[in-house]
Design goal:
The complex is a heterodimer of chains A (about 250) and B (about 350).
Chain A: E1 2-13, E2 16-27, E3 31-35, H1 42-49, E4 57-62, E5 65-66, H2 72-78, E6 80-82, H3 95-102, H4 111-116, H5 119-138, H6 154-167, E7 172-176, H7 184-201, E8 204-208, H8 212-218, E9 221-226, E10 229-235, H9 236-240, H10 243-250
Parallel strand pairs in A: 3-8, 3-9, 6-7, 7-8
Antiparallel strand pairs in A: 1-2, 1-4, 4-5, 9-10
Chain B: H1 2-32, H2 37-62, H3 70-91, H4 97-123, H5 128-147, E1 150-154, E2 157-161, E3 176-179, E4 184-185, H6 193-211, H7 214-224, H8 226-231, H9 236-259, E5 264-265, H10 269-272, H11 274-287, H12 292-312, H13 317-333, H14 335-352, H15 354-361
Antiparallel strand pairs in B: 1-2, 1-3, 4-5
Helix pairs in contact in B: 1-6, 2-6, 2-9, 2-11, 2-12, 3-4, 3-5, 3-9, 4-9, 6-9, 7-9, 11-12, 12-13, 14-15
Classes of the chains: A alpha/beta (about 250), B mainly alpha (about 350).
Chain lengths: ~250, ~350
């Protein structure tokens, strides 16, 4: 069953057609890759999927529900969570609180309950602490729970972003260049983490990546974007051997 | 994880304990007659400024938006509550003073909070410098409208004018309550130091509990990264508005306390103008953005300082005040000073208990 279905998605900025007739179908439980040269429009596609931009044309369907043109918050409620190319953590909050912000809509109580410290406050906060601690443990961040997010090493900041996204209990996880700025060891570790997330949380993952080792290592299917258009789509091995794809990445003679 | 919980709890207890300790000490001083009349007169204003500083810190430090119109909300709280109290005094003289003041506080907070929402809806779409300038403008607008507002109540109902007291067409000029630039006279003097401290404690509890709750985390996540906050489903506009209006309502409470401490309430540039707003911002910045206890202490120190200097070096008092302000700002926030302070603290701790020093060295 397709969890994400996108048809004919387009957006223009001024005269530039940044994304043109983009289409993709991501099956439930898939690990799907979106690749392409710099400026091909990959992050723009993510921003369209998460409601940061409104598409000019096209339909986005999540789990059978039309979410085209909805707001970022509504789309998160509908079940898409994401990470960012340039890490966006809540830097002045602790690692634990970062995840608890992600749990905001899962465990809730009113403002007055919080101010008056009614029994419900303690009950729900305890649930949140337990859930957050569990997530942190999965990402091997439990030792750093009380640290400020800003003080985490780079690799762990990336992990925390994924943990925070998962805390919102999504159906689809979007990872925007998760391996950017990582050394080969860290990338290997990240690949294991992504695999683990898929198995452990039964998650569908769509990721943007430049690191070909990571892409060929974990993605089952790929879509290649070039100049905002879909250049090629299919099984990873077929796509990476496609002459058009090689030409787009390496240039022609 | 448990450690962080107890850490915030301990910090909150210290903050509350500090206020209670100051209250007890001042009460003892008053009881033994060791306090000058000048100081006595400053006690309620100190509570007013502390409440203002704590409430502005909610907008500036926790929400992360620069507001320069805080005195405007205080102004609304002051005038709406003084109007209410005077009406009650005129038409329901039998009402106990305590109940009247309690209701006046609610009225002041409600009006200021409501105005906070009304102003917040358009203004919070802006960011940074732009927001600061627009809030500054709103603060001035509020003050200036109050200055030309004529409002009276008699048997025929409420009379209202923006021109002059004559335009109210009231037979009994005693029943004019807000008389333009002459303001409100004869507000019952219900404020006192004890009530001030109680209101400060309530403000502290509201703000501290809010910060360490689900809503507080959401507000701080907006401060740290709005785009990420939206991506995890935080309703950004709602929380911005909530923090801004709670901050405004608490400023309104400070206004109520202020108004009921004076027999004549007028809106002048000195008490409700942008000078005042900037003064409150100085308390917040000096005490530390997001540091509730710090902003409270800064408000008290910076209010007392010019008065204490008055007795020592009256001619150069404002000059010395300014120099002390600069030195304090450097001592608190210059990176080198922070480093030096941390080293000194570590050294003192090391001398007190060699074990903990050895641990830090590991």
């Amino acid at each position: 069953m397709a969890i994400l279905e996108v048809q004919n998605l387009s957006i223009s900025f001024g005269g530039l057609r940044a994304v043109d007739d983009f289409h993709v179908t991501v099956e439930k439980g898939a690990l799907y890759g979106l690749i392409g040269p710099n400026g091909a429009g990959k992050t723009t596609v993510f921003n369209l999927l998460t409601g940061v931009y409104k598409p000019d044309e096209g339909i986005i369907t999540l789990d059978g529900k039309d979410i085209t043109g909805r707001k970022t918050i509504e789309i998160n409620h509908a079940g898409i969570a994401r990470t960012f190319q340039n890490i966006r953590l809540f830097k002045e909050l602790t690692v634990l609180d970062n995840v608890k912000v992600g749990l905001h809509n899962q465990n809730s109580y009113g403002t007055l309950t919080g101010i008056l410290r009614l029994p419900k406050y303690f009950r729900v906060e305890k649930q949140m602490n337990e859930k957050a601690a569990e997530l942190l443990k999965v990402f091997d961040l439990d030792q750093e729970a009380s640290m400020l997010a800003a003080n985490l090493p780079y690799g762990k900041q990336r992990k925390l972003e994924i943990a925070r996204a998962l805390a919102t209990n999504p159906k689809l996880l979007l990872l925007d260049e998760p391996a950017a700025g990582m050394n080969p060891n860290e990338t290997q570790e990240l690949m294991d983490t992504i695999h683990f997330v898929r198995e452990h949380f039964d998650m569908t993952i769509l990721l943007i990546e430049h690191d070909m080792k990571l892409v060929s290592g974990i993605c089952e299917e790929l879509t290649v974007l070039n100049f905002g258009r879909v250049l090629c789509q299919g099984k990873t091995a077929d796509v990476l051997n496609n002459p058009d794809v090689i030409k787009a990445y390496l240039g022609s003679e | 994880m448990k450690k962080t919980m107890s850490k915030t709890l301990r910090s909150n207890i210290i903050t509350i304990g500090l206020v209670v300790a100051v209250f007890v000490i001042v009460q003892i001083l008053i009881g033994t007659g060791n306090i000058s009349s000048l100081m006595k007169g400053l006690l309620v204003p100190l509570c007013v400024y502390a409440i203002l500083a704590v409430s502005l810190n909610l907008t500036v430090g926790i929400l992360g938006e620069l507001s320069l119109g805080h005195a405007g909300f205080m102004c609304i709280g002051a005038f709406s509550s003084a109007f209410f109290s005077k009406c009650m005094k005129m038409f329901l003289p039998g009402m106990p003073a305590g109940l009247r003041f309690f209701l006046a506080i609610l009225v002041g907070a409600a009006f200021a909070g409501l105005l906070g929402i009304l102003i917040g809806i358009p203004v919070l779409r802006l960011k940074g410098d732009y927001l600061a300038i627009v809030t500054l403008a709103f603060g001035e607008i509020i003050k200036n409208i109050i200055n030309i507002l004529y409002l009276g109540v008699d048997e025929a109902g409420v009379h209202f004018s923006l021109k002059s007291s004559m335009d109210l067409h009231m037979e009994d000029s005693d029943k004019i309550i807000i008389n333009g630039a002459m303001g409100i006279t004869g507000t019952p003097g219900d404020s006192n130091f004890t009530i001030g401290i109680v209101l400060l404690l309530i403000t502290l509890i509201i703000v501290l509990n809010l910060i360490h709750s689900r809503d507080g985390r959401a507000i701080m996540s907006i401060r740290d990264n709005t785009i990420a906050a939206e991506s995890v489903g935080i309703p950004v506009t709602r929380y911005k508005l909530m923090a801004f209006s709670i901050s405004a309502a608490l400023a309104g409470v400070a206004g109520v306390l202020y108004a009921h401490n004076l027999s004549t309430l007028t809106a002048t540039p000195k008490n409700f103008g942008y000078n005042m707003s900037i003064m409150i911002l100085v308390f917040v910045v000096l005490g530390g953005m997001g540091n509730i206890r710090g902003s409270m202490i800064a408000a008290v120190v910076l209010t007392l300082l010019p008065e204490l200097l008055r007795g020592v070096v009256s001619d150069y008092r404002m000059l010395i005040y300014a120099i002390i302000l600069i030195v304090m700002m450097l001592f608190n926030w210059a990176p080198k000073c922070i480093e030096w302070r941390e080293k000194t603290v570590a050294m003192i701790r090391g001398k007190l208990s060699p074990k903990s020093a050895a641990k830090e060295g590991e």
